[in-house]
Amino acid sequence: MTQLIDFFFSPYTSVHKRRFDAAIEDGLAHLSQIQPLDPQPGQAVTISLFVNVNKPIERVAVYYTTDGTEPAGERGIVERGTVLFAELLEQQHYNAETGQTARIWQVCIPAQKDGTLVRYRADGWSLSDSSLHWYADRVDPVTVAQKKGRCFAYHVDRWEAPEWWHEAIVYQIFVDRFSSAQDEAPLHSEENCGITDFFGGTLRGIIEKLDYIQSLGVNCLWLSPLFESPSHHGYNPSDYHHVARRYGTDETLQQLIQEAHRRGMRVLLDFVANHTSDEHFAFVDAYNNPTSRYARWYNFTEIEPPHTYRSYAMVHTMPELSTDEPEVREYLNGAALYWLEHYGADGLRLDYVSGPSHAFWTSFQQAIKTAHPEALTIGEITSPMSEIVDYAGRMDGFMDFPLSAMLRRTFALRSNTLQELLSFLDTHSQEIPPSMIRAVVVDNHDMHRFLWLADGQRDRLKLATAFQMTLEGTPIIYYGTEVGLSQSDDAHKENAYCRAPMAWGEQQDQDMLAYYRRLIALRHQYRVLRTGKRRQIAVDSDVDSAQVGAYIRYNDEDCVLVVLNNSEQPARVYVQLDDMLKNSGPMPVYLRAVLSRQEDQALLPIHNGQVEISLPPLGAEICCISQK
Fold this sequence. Notes:
Layout: H1 15-26, E1 28-29, E2 34-35, E3 45-52, E4 59-65, E5 72-74, E6 77-80, E7 82-85, E8 87-95, E9 100-109, E10 117-125, E11 133-135, E12 152-155, H2 163-166, E13 170-173, H3 203-208, H4 210-216, E14 220-223, E15 227-228, E16 239-243, H5 250-262, E17 266-272, H6 281-288, H7 326-341, E18 347-351, H8 358-371, E19 376-379, H9 385-388, E20 397-399, H10 401-411, H11 418-431, E21 437-441, H12 450-453, H13 458-469, E22 474-478, H14 510-525, H15 527-531, E23 533-537, E24 539-541, E25 548-554, E26 559-565, E27 571-576, E28 590-593, E29 603-607, E30 610-615, E31 619-626
Parallel strand pairs: 13-14, 13-22, 14-17, 17-18, 18-19, 19-20, 20-21, 21-22
Antiparallel strand pairs: 1-3, 2-3, 3-9, 4-7, 4-10, 5-6, 8-9, 10-11, 10-12, 15-16, 23-25, 24-27, 25-26, 26-31, 27-30, 28-29, 28-31, 29-30
């Protein structure tokens, strides 16, 4: 098969950069650049603003409130709230790509008490020409702009991700493609159904497969959008409060969640805030009636080809919501709470986080956490790490796509070495704010299946999964990956082919399934694999040193060694244990290999503080300390 492009990770201009460049071109940019990223009670917050050097902006002010109202003011005269005047720094912001320079202004909002919502606006003006005036982030090439600039926000709190997330292993189900119940019509096949048609998966089908899901060892389900929707994927809701009839009833979802809870499983539901379908009642009314009460919910304009309204990715069936409108914000917050309270879901996976503003997600997180502190909010943020961190405090965590990209290049496409991956991981992990959790993803509903990228080579998938299951961060398994499900064709944008019907019965790769079950069992067995720290360990080997590596997961009580061979040759790997075990008491006599060896071959002797581990091509081993 021809080498494929991993299109989901193709180079593109990020949403943040597009917004920043447009705002700077206009004159005054902010883009929610604050320090600290996730303000705690008692911490003052520094606001950074960026001014186009070619614009005669000579004063900059920030207007803020702490009572939830929207601040107002202009040219340093406050109408609602408090005004602060920014100071010009000597340093400047330089964009090496464009050669563009911006002046940096900063102002410090005083520390606030726990539970305070700080809302603020900013503007700039010329002292020499009273007609020249700018609002911060007045333009937005991504979503609906605000004529008087954006109203920004942050929340002061001590909220954290729920403890149960740190123990979770997640199974992602694309509902339409997973299973139907025994007394329902069977799922269509790709031979008799178009890849973007409905295939017939249902909630009752999932309920009947809970025994299978539980046998994997997973303890959290993530279900694709369940809203009524005209599309097979459901990411354009027509009704934010009811289950799509093709999936079942509202009561069926309640039954599924109750049964999952009885088995000790949590349930995450997909939530879409950026856009609706063109069948949503608010859009239909606004589209047909210019005086509709919902007219401000969308952005109708004659300059949005090929339609008269803004839509996500210019897809006319996905009209974009004006999420900064108070009514829209309240509607979406209420809908999200409804899925948690009425249906009993444990958390929300947030679709296309980069669309709505940071202020919207601040409000959303406040609504969710105030009512349900143990609910999880985790975002799909397809941005560089430098932009992902800006969402700290605005949601609990993120899908770690930067790591996914490097993981897939290393194990599937083989364009990076294992040592490059491990070095990346060390640097990458240090960039993540302490208050943000992450999910480790090998593939999902928007990416090519890992096996498709790996030319069907199962050993590559096994090695990638061993890496995934032994890292810090919560692993997510995309349905079917555990039984060798791939796809039948390539795609360059929306990859519906990676949403193939689930493989059941004889179609399943039982060897792959057993490998997944073993790795999941080990992650449950050794708490250090879930919550321990990680440190890379130097190794020697008789094969390409760039493709062999090791790390430990450790805490005060335990230590586990993970060794990987990403070469296509058998490898003898030599690990010096002195440094690894220096705080673990006397040097043990053996390490016990717990992943890939038979019991009679599991004990690995230690000589002079060194252990030798033999690995097959594209192989992995997990070793724990053993005194016998």
